[in-house]
Amino acid sequence: MKPFLEPIMQFFRDYELLIPAAAGGLVDYMNKLYRGTSVWSVLGFFVHLASAIFFGWLTGSLVEGLDYSHQAVASAGGIGGFLGTRVADLAVAVTSKLSGTK
Questions:
Q1: Contacts with 84 (C-beta within 8 Å, 6 or more apart), sequence order
Q2: What's the whole-number mean pLDDT along residues 10-38?
Q3: In a 3-state reduction of DSSP, which class is residue 84?
C-alpha cells in the first residue's frame, strides 16, 4: 500500500500551496453566487479558480520565502486565493470604467 500512497503524498507536498488557494477561490465564487453578484458559468468558474490559484501561489510563495511554518504558508495561500480574486475583480472594474465600457 505504501508504494501506492507515496506518489500521492509527494503530489500534495509539491502543490501544497495550490489546494488552499483553490479552496479560497471556491469560497469566494460561492459567496458571489449566494449574494447574487455573479451568475453560474463554467468558464467563469474556471477563470475565477485559475486567478485564485495564481494569487494564492504567489502569496504562499512569498510567505514561504520568509521562512514561516507550513501552516502559515497554507493559510496565506488560502487567503491569497480568496482576496486575489477580489483584487482582480477590482482591476477589471477600474479598467472598464476608465475605458468607458461596461
A1: 21, 24, 25, 51, 52, 54, 55, 56, 58, 59
A2: 83
A3: helix
